[in-house]
């Protein structure tokens, strides 16, 4: 728990110090919403908001370990954090708080702009709040795998997006059903199950991937 | 066989297969055998399926492409599962052969998956009235193609061979969760795709007249692609073991 | 003096496997590292680290093979060798970042690693960086104690500046301050003299001497002669 808190606070601090980096995913989300509204009209399915959130997430998660790798704090973390699990969780929690959470909070605005209705907006926010942490956890695996290569962007997207699909399916399905006034309990429970699964498994995969990335 | 340890031969086989040298020299006749046997079965099964099976009651003649589609789809999953097992073996025991197997099989898996997708689309146009359906099994097969692609792309992105091997093995292992999603997605969603017709242990929902040539083709695909994988694996061994004494000896002898 | 409750509460059962009072190194008479508490029963008494028959390869090239090394309190091992001879790889093996292709490495105590990358985040101040390190190493170093350490490495004025705004040498000194803040009896230093002025080199020598005097040990990869007393020094040359 101590490691979690230490790492969480440190990453929040670093993110606040480099404000523009931290705001980029959110800015992308808003901008993409505007472009989509202009390009495709204002009667879209709420699933598109999920797609935008997903892209914002993959763009953000790509760099989650990059700075730490470059300045060597990542290797210090791997050497000293025993166990690594809570430190990785703290790091990803801070990352999510500045990428997934703001997107979820702003999603009602995007929903009104793109779908033309505020029906089921609460469920949309809720589904994003459950789903995006799972995305961050899964995306961090891909990000960790390639952190030492100096490549990023598209490669992470290719590696990671297939893993995002189940989350997208249930998230989009939940928000669509909510807009139509249909029951959403199953989809939300499925999302929660995916989150629980990624919470238990992903940090270990991330830790393993980070360890591999620091090999010489 | 060591009688004191009845399972000893398993261990021996494991170690032998793990040795590039043993595999390289021992697997040569297998390549030819698998190629010939597999090709033979595919020719028999496909001719049978394409020419001598009556048109299906609902799907008509378009059912015939399933004699290619179904084996390819099965095989794609099987290849991925083998890659994931190899990934596990490599991460735990650091067996070089497992890594070479991943390296050899990933592009082949990609091709087979694309074949399954392409035949599926061709089959779907007359049967479903559309080439592409957003149902779970088609989508997850497409994702399987991307997983194979990712394995190849990741290895190329990481320059260092040993680090790339371990990263790819980990990715393969993580990606294997996609396989149950493929399997259970049919139950998760009620979609257009027909549920699997052959379930082991149950009476097949498919008439024997279709089943026999299909089974022949499935077996043929497995054998032929196994031959391709073994051949590719031998090529990888030459690449990685270049400069070792045994390989030089082997080349000068042959 | 400032409030230094640091590490007084940590006993022999602590996560380090040793007890020691690193803050006392800042005073005139350092207090030695405590006896090693072995995590494993079969290890040689008092060896801080034992490496046996370690082999590392890059592709087909063998960097080193059958390399054995043991470190006892007070030891200083210099790793020498040309560029690309595997010095950094060996150090990363010792600290556990790299898994050797063969051989065993037993780490009986906590180690501290200063590599090519400083381990200091550019967006944080030296104090914040060191506090974070203290946090993940499970030590209780507080701000006051870190302040003293920064004074010692000559960064008293820059302690509240973000590390990005510091010079390369100053950033190197922040990394050196980690040596003071850490309670680890084993130091693994990769080119510790890089980017340092004469003053900084002397400081490294002083810190090493003091560290060894109180029962610590160090492994240094270096191209230059370390400004340190020679007693107990060994040299491992790679690539020969």
Strand content of chain B: under 5%
Helix content of chain C: 25-40%
Morphology call of chain B: globular
Instruction: Please identify the structural class of chain C as seen in this structure.
Output: alpha/beta
The Cα radius of gyration of chain B reads 20 Å
User: Which pair of chains has the greatest number of interface residues, and how are they split between the two chains?
Assistant: A-C, 28 and 29 residues
* Global mean pLDDT of chain C: 77
Average pLDDT over all residues of chain B = 82
Distance between the termini of chain C: 51 Å
Secondary-structure class of chain B: mainly alpha
Q: From the alpha-carbon coordinates, what is the Rg of chain C to the nearest angstrom? A: 17 Å
Level-2 CATH architecture of chain C: 3-Layer(aba) Sandwich
Structure annotation, total helices of chain B: 10
For the secondary structure, the number of strands of chain C is: 8
- Overall 3D geometry of chain C? globular
The low-pLDDT segments of chain C are 1-31, 34-44
Describe the model.
The complex is a heterotrimer of chains A (216), B (254) and C (240). Chain A is mostly helical. Chain A has ten helices and no strands. Chain A has one domain (2-213). Helix content of chain A is 82%, strand content 0%. In chain A, helix 7 packs across helix 8 (121-145). Chain A starts with a helix and ends with a helix. Chain B has helices at residues 8-17, 20-26, 28-52, 66-93, 96-127, 136-157, 161-175, 178-188, 208-240, 245-253. The model of chain B has no long low-confidence stretch (mean pLDDT 82). By secondary structure, chain C is of the alpha/beta class. Chain C is built from five helices and eight strands; from the N terminus they run βββαββαααβαββ. Chain C has a five-stranded parallel beta sheet with strand order 5-6-7-3-8, sandwiched between helices. A three-stranded antiparallel beta sheet of chain C has the order 2-1-4, covered by helices on one side. Residues 1-31 and 34-44 of chain C have low confidence and may be disordered.
């Amino acid at each position: 728990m101590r490691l979690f808190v230490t790492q969480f606070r440190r990453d929040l601090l670093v993110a606040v110090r480099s404000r523009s980096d931290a705001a980029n995913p959110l800015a992308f989300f808003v901008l993409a919403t505007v472009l989509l509204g202009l390009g495709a009209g204002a009667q879209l399915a709420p699933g598109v908001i999920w797609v935008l959130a997903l892209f914002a997430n993959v763009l953000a998660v790509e760099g989650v370990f990059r700075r730490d790798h470059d300045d060597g704090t990542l290797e210090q973390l791997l050497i000293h954090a025993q166990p690594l699990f809570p430190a990785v969780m703290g790091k990803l929690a801070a990352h999510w708080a500045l990428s997934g959470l703001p997107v979820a909070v702003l999603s009602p605005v995007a929903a009104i702009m793109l779908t033309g209705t505020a029906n089921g907006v609460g469920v949309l926010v809720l589904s994003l709040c459950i789903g995006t942490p799972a995305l961050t956890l899964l995306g961090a695996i891909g990000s960790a795998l390639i952190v030492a290569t100096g490549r990023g962007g598209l490669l992470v997207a290719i590696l990671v997006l297939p893993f995002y699909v189940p989350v997208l399916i249930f998230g989009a399905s939940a928000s669509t059903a909510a807009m139509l006034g249909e029951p959403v309990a199953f989809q939300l429970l499925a999302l929660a199950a995916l989150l629980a699964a990624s919470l238990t498994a992903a940090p270990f995969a991330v830790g393993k991937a980070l360890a591999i990335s620091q090999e010489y | 066989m060591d009688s004191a340890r009845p399972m000893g031969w398993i261990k021996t086989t494991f170690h032998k297969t793990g040795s590039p040298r043993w595999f390289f020299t021992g697997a040569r006749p297998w390549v030819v055998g698998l190629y010939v046997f597999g090709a033979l079965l595919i020719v028999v099964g496909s001719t049978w399926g394409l020419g001598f099976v009556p048109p299906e009651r609902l799907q008509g003649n378009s059912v015939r492409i399933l004699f290619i589609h179904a084996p390819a789809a099965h095989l794609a999953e099987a290849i991925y599962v083998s890659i994931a097992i190899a990934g596990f073996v490599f991460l735990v025991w650091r067996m070089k052969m497992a890594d070479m197997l991943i390296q050899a099989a990933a592009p082949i898996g990609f091709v087979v998956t694309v074949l399954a997708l392409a035949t599926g689309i061709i089959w779907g146009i007359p049967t479903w009235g559309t080439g592409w359906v957003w149902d779970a099994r088609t989508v997850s097969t497409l994702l399987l193609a991307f997983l194979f692609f990712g394995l190849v792309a990741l290895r190329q992105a990481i320059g260092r061979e040993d680090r790339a091997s371990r990263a790819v093995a980990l990715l393969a292992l993580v990606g294997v969760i996609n396989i149950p999603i493929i399997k259970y997605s049919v139950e998760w969603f009620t979609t257009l795709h027909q549920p699997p017709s052959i379930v082991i242990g149950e009476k097949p929902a498919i008439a024997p007249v279709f089943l026999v040539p299909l089974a022949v083709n499935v077996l043929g695909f497995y054998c032929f692609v196994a031959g391709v994988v073994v051949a590719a694996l031998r090529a990888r061994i030459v690449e990685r073991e270049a400069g070792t004494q045994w390989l030089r000896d082997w080349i000068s002898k042959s | 003096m400032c409030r230094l409750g640091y590490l007084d509460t940590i006993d022999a059962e602590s996560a380090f496997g040793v007890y020691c009072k690193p803050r006392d190194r800042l005073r005139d008479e350092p207090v030695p590292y405590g006896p090693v508490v072995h995590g494993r029963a079969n290890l040689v008494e008092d060896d801080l680290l034992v490496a046996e028959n370690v082999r590392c390869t890059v592709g087909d090239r063998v960097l080193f093979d059958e390399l054995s090394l043991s470190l006892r309190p007070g030891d200083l091992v210099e790793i020498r060798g040309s560029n690309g001879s595997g010095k950094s790889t060996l150090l990363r093996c010792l600290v556990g970042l790299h898994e050797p292709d063969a051989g065993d490495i037993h780490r009986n105590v906590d180690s501290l690693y200063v590599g090519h990358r400083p381990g200091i985040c550019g967006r944080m101040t030296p104090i914040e960086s060191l506090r974070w390190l203290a946090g993940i190493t499970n030590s209780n170093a507080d701000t006051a104690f870190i302040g003293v350490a920064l004074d010692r490495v000559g960064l008293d004025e820059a302690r509240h500046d973000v590390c990005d705004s510091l010079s390369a040498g100053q950033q190197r000194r922040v990394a050196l301050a980690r040596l003071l803040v850490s309670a680890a009896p084993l130091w693994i230093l990769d080119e510790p003299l890089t980017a340092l002025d004469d003053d900084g080199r002397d400081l490294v020598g002083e810190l090493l001497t003091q560290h060894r005097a109180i029962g610590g040990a160090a492994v240094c990869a270096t191209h230059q002669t370390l400004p340190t007393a020679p007693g107990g020094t060994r040299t491992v040359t790679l690539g020969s």
